[in-house]
Amino acid sequence: MPFYQKRGKIPNKRHIQFRDKDKNLYYEELISRQGFSSLYSNTYHINPPTIVKKIGKFKQIKKECAGDVHRHHHIRSFDLKSEGDAINSRLLLFYNDDVDLSIARVDKSMNSFYRNGHNDEIIFIQSGSGNFYSNFGNMELKQGDYVIIPRGIIWKIQVEEKMSQFIIETRGLVETPTKYRNSHGQLLEHSPYSERDIRTTKLDKPSIDGPSIIKTKLNNGFQEYEYAHHPFDIVGWDGYYYPWILNIDDFMPITGKIHQPPPVHQTFQAPGLVVCSFVPRMFDYHPEAIPAPYAHSNIDSDEVLFYAGGEFMSRNNVQEGSITFHPSGLPHGPHPGKIEESIGKEETNELAVMVDTFKPLSISTKAKEADDIDYPMSWKI
Q1: What is the pLDDT along the chain (381 residues), one digit of tens a residue?
Q2: 3-state class of 28 per DSSP?
Q3: φ and ψ of 173, to 5 deg
Q4: Domain limits, the chain
Q5: Helix (H) or strand (E) holding 365
Q6: 91-94: long-range contacts, CB 8 A cutoff, minimum separation 24
Q7: HSE on the CB side for 204, CA within 13 Å?
Q8: Which superfamily does CATH assign the domain made up of 252-377 to?
Q9: What's the Cα-to-Cα distance from 123 to each of 4, 105, 157, 227, 296, rounded to whole Å?
Q10: Distances from the Cα of 157 to the Cαs of 12, 231, 314, in angstroms?
Q11: Cα–Cα distances in angstroms (integers) from residue 337 to residues 184, 340, 341, in the given order
């Protein structure tokens, strides 16, 4: 779980008068989950954050399902055309009631602000760099970053070097795995990462320019609002609710004498899904160990694997940006020859992000444009 953070100037008690040097009152805003019963932060604005000048037109989102047969898929996402800023470059590939999975190649900085009103977001930066600006402060973005953005956060991304992104939008709260936390929420000693690895925001001087356009995403579309004041006019905040970053290189893999199952790679959880990180690691050290994963059937989950970099020891003909989709009810495993090839090897340098969902995923028509139709037969000997 996130831990307590404090930035800027705040009063010594909540919900009391808090004024600047000229005796002007700052405006308190509580940003909270589950009403008043879960995580929250208190922010303090120079101006009221509520003054809307104009409401724009609503733009509906239409999710188009390819309606394909039940089979394995290999999506060559690098073949899909994507350009623009961090929002309009997104291409939706898979979805269900709990999650949307998209890719984006971001080559432009955002001109307006963005807020996801209904979903948390995990943005994985496969390549490139930039800066993340939000009402809670700013963070540098670099290759390998998982950027965790809770719903309701207002943000924009400035591009320094063109970014390739894999985006996970969840209907529920993104959390550190329960199994790696103690009863107080602290990450345990045997967790594959700790609070030291988590980067949080730096609060700059408040912005007082205005008005400002905030593009708000809802489950069924986009709504633009023009506010009278700048959303980054915050002089201080504290609490447990804010954006944060974990870099995949700071994930310390758990290894064993024999092959470890995928749950040891779990990095995040959200209702209806888990997210895992496959990173460079030493292989198993039993004298007769088989480092390649055994074949398995996903009886209760769909598996999406985004190949981010390195050499992929169990797959043929995949490259950076490849995405495999193995739906529930079908066995899958290493390609022919990969099991024998792995024996005796001491390490792997693969880098990949896996999302397992517990409800079936729909594949979009956009994903079908880059679908390798021969992939289901790729296990032929």
Answers
A1: 679 999 999 999 999 999 999 999 999 999 999 999 999 999 999 999 999 999 999 999 999 999 878 999 999 999 999 999 999 999 999 999 999 999 999 999 999 999 999 999 999 999 999 999 999 999 999 999 999 999 999 999 999 999 999 999 999 999 999 999 999 999 999 999 999 999 999 999 999 888 999 999 999 999 999 999 999 999 999 999 999 999 999 999 999 999 999 999 999 999 999 999 999 999 999 999 999 999 999 899 999 999 999 888 778 888 999 999 999 999 999 999 999 999 998 899 999 999 999 999 999 999 999 999 999 999 998
A2: strand
A3: -70, 130
A4: 252-377
A5: helix 365-368
A6: 91/366, 92/63, 92/364, 92/366, 93/323, 93/363, 93/364, 93/366, 93/367, 94/304, 94/325, 94/361, 94/362, 94/363, 94/364, 94/367
A7: 11
A8: Jelly Rolls (2.60.120.10)
A9: 22, 12, 11, 26, 28
A10: 33, 15, 35
A11: 47, 6, 6
Asked whether the beta carbons of 119 and 95 are under 8 A apart, the reply is no
Residue 139: which H helix or E strand, with range? strand 137-141
Q: How far apart are CA 333 and CA 151, in angstroms?
A: 36
Pairing of strands 302-309, 296-297: unpaired
Tell me how far apart the alpha carbons of residues 351 and 335 are, in angstroms, rounded to a whole number. 18
Q: In angstroms, rounded to a whole number, what is the distance separating the alpha carbons of residues 163 and 322?
A: 16
Contacts of 325 (CB under 8 A, 6+ apart): 72, 73, 74, 75, 94, 302, 303, 304, 361, 363
Query: In this structure, how many other beta carbons lie within 10 angstroms of the beta carbon of residue 354?
Result: 18
Relative to beta strand 154-170, strand 113-116 is: antiparallel
Q: Measured between alpha carbons, how far is 313 from 168 in angstroms, rounded to an integer?
A: 25
Bridge partners of residue 264, in order along the sequence? none
Sign of the Cα torsion 34, 39, 134, 219 reads: negative
Q: Characterize the bridge pairing of strands 212-218 and 113-116.
A: parallel
